[in-house]
Amino acid sequence: MDKRKEPLNRKLPEYEVIQKAASGNILAVNQILDHYRGYIIKKSIRRLKDEYGNTYCYVDETLRQCLENQLVKKIINFKL
Question: Which residues of the chain are under the pLDDT cut of 70?
Answer without folding.
Answer: 1-9
